C-alpha cells in the first residue's frame, strides 16, 4: 500500500505547480505595488484581497480539474461548449456593460467573463473532434469545415461584445491545435490568404476606438494624449527601469499613476520599472519553462485527445503572454489581454488554474494507457 502511494506521488509533476505558484506570488507583489497607497499603508490592498480570494477558488478549481480523469472532459466537451455558447448569448442579452463593452455576467453579486471560459471549451470541443476523426491527417479545407464552425460561432459572439482581444485569442489558440493536428500545404496557403482578406474586410466593421488603436500602433505619435498615451507611458516606465530597476514600490510612473490599467493589462510595465531588464528576463524565463513543460506533457500523453488538449492549453498561455508583453512593449496593438497568473482579474486567474489542473491531470494519468 505504501509502495503504491509512492508510485502515485512519483507520477505527480512538481515543476508546473512550482512555477505557477512563483508566478502567482510575483503577481501578488506586483498587484500590491500597482495599487499601493502610501497614505493608507496595508499589507494587502483591496485588489490583493480579491485576487487572493480568487486564488483560493482557483485552488478548488485546479483540484477538481485534476481529480476528474481528463477523458471525462472528452465525453463532456460538446456539452461544456454548448453551455459557454449559451453564456455568450446571455452576455449580449443581459450582460453588464462597462466602458462601452458588454462582456460580463453577474451571478450572486460576482461578475465574470464567459469569454475566458470559452477559450477552454473551444479547445475541448476541437480536441474531441480531431481525436475522434476517422480520416488520418493532414486535413484539407473541406475536412476542416466542422472545426471552423466550432471556432467561428464563439468567435463571432465575442467580437459582438465587442472584445476583439479575446476573439483573436480564441482564433489563435484554435489555429494552434488545428496546425498541430496537421493540415496540407495548400490548406495553409489558403487559410493565410483568407485571413488577410478577412482582416482587410473586417477593418470596416471595427469600432472607431479599435481602428484608432491599430493606427496608433502603426504610428505611436498619431495621438500621444489619446490612444497613444497607454503605449507611451508604458515605454517610459519600462525604459526608466533600466538594467536593475528602481526597486520595489519605487516606480515613479506607477506611484504617480501615469500608467493606465497598471494592475491589469499593463502590469508588466509596473514590474519592469521596479525590477528592470534582469527582473523582466527572469519573469520571461519562468514563463518559458512553464510553456516548455506544457509542450512536454502534450508529447507524453498516450492518447490523441490528451495531446491535443495539452497543446491547446499551452497555446492559451503562450498567446496571452506573447500578446500582453508585446502590447506593453509597443510591438502589438493595445487589446484587453491579461498576463496570466500575474494580472489582477478573477475569471482569468480561475481559468488559468483550472487549465493548469488539466495539464497536471494529463501528466498524472499517462501511465494508464
What's the SSE blueprint?
Blueprint: H1 2-10, H2 15-34, H3 46-67, H4 71-94, E1 96-98, E2 101-107, E3 110-112, H5 114-131, H6 145-159, H7 164-181, H8 185-202, H9 208-218, H10 229-241, H11 252-255, H12 267-300, H13 304-328, H14 346-364
Antiparallel strand pairs: 1-2, 2-3
Structure description:
With 369 residues, the chain is mostly helical. It has one domain. The chain has 14 helices and 3 strands. It has helices at residues 2-10, 15-34, 46-67, 71-94, 114-131, 145-159, 164-181, 185-202, 208-218, 229-241, 252-255, 267-300, 304-328, 346-364; strands spanning 96-98, 101-107, 110-112. It has a 3-stranded antiparallel sheet with strand order 1-2-3, with helices on one face. A hairpin with a 2-residue loop joins strand 2 (101-107) and strand 3. Helix 5 (114-131) runs parallel beside helix 14 and helix 7 (164-181) crosses helix 13. It is globular. The model is unreliable at 1-5 (pLDDT under 50).
Helical proportion? 55-70%
Shape estimate? globular
Largest sheet: 3 strands, antiparallel
Q: What percent strand?
A: under 5%
* Structural class designation: mainly alpha
Total strands: 3
Q: Strand order of the main beta sheet, please? A: 1-2-3
Q: Over all CA atoms, what is the radius of gyration?
A: 21 Å
Order of helices and strands: HHHHEEEHHHHHHHHHH
Domain module count: 1
**Count of DSSP H/I helices:** 14
- In the predicted model, the low-confidence regions spanning at least 5 consecutive residues are 1-5
Distance between the termini: 22 Å
Overall average pLDDT: 85
Amino acid at each position: 500500500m505504501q509502495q503504491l502511494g509512492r508510485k502515485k506521488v512519483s507520477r505527480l509533476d512538481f515543476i508546473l505547480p512550482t512555477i505557477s505558484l512563483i508566478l502567482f506570488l510575483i503577481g501578488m507583489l506586483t498587484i500590491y505595488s500597482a495599487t499601493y497607497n502610501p497614505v493608507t499603508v496595508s499589507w494587502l490592498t483591496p485588489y490583493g484581497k480579491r485576487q487572493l480570494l480568487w486564488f483560493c477558488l482557483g485552488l478548488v478549481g485546479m483540484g477538481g480539474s485534476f481529480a476528474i480523469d481528463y477523458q471525462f472532459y472528452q465525453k463532456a466537451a460538446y456539452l461544456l461548449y454548448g453551455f459557454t455558447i449559451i453564456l455568450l448569448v446571455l452576455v449580449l442579452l443581459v450582460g453588464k456593460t462597462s466602458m462601452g463593452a458588454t462582456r460580463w455576467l453577474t451571478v450572486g453579486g460576482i461578475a465574470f467573463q464567459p469569454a475566458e471560459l470559452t477559450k477552454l471549451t473551444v479547445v475541448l470541443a476541437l480536441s474531441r473532434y480531431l481525436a475522434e476523426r476517422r480520416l488520418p491527417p493532414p486535413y484539407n479545407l473541406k475536412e476542416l469545415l466542422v472545426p471552423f464552425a466550432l471556432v467561428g460561432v464563439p468567435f463571432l459572439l465575442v467580437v459582438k461584445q465587442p472584445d476583439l482581444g479575446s476573439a483573436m485569442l480564441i482564433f489563435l489558440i484554435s489555429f494552434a491545435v488545428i496546425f498541430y493536428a496537421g493540415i496540407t500545404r495548400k490548406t495553409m496557403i489558403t487559410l493565410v490568404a483568407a485571413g488577410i482578406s478577412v482582416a482587410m474586410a473586417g477593418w470596416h466593421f471595427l469600432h472607431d476606438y479599435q481602428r484608432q488603436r491599430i493606427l496608433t500602433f502603426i504610428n505611436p505619435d498619431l495621438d500621444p494624449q489619446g490612444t497613444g498615451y497607454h503605449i507611451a507611458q508604458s515605454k517610459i516606465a519600462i525604459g526608466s527601469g533600466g538594467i536593475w530597476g528602481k526597486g520595489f514600490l519605487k516606480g515613479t510612473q506607477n506611484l504617480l499613476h501615469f500608467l493606465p490599467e497598471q494592475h491589469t493589462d499593463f502590469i508588466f510595465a509596473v514590474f519592469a520599472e521596479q525590477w528592470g531588464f534582469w527582473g523582466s528576463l527572469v519573469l520571461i524565463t519562468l514563463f518559458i519553462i512553464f510553456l516548455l513543460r506544457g509542450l512536454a506533457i502534450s508529447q507524453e500523453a498516450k492518447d490523441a485527445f490528451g495531446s491535443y488538449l495539452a497543446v491547446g492549453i499551452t497555446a492559451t498561455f503562450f498567446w496571452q503572454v506573447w500578446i500582453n508583453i508585446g502590447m506593453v512593449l509597443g510591438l502589438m496593438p493595445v487589446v484587453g489581454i491579461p498576463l496570466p497568473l500575474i494580472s489582477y482579474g478573477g475569471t482569468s486567474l480561475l481559468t488559468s488554474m483550472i487549465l493548469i489542473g488539466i495539464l497536471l491531470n494529463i501528466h498524472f494519468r499517462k501511465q494508464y494507457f
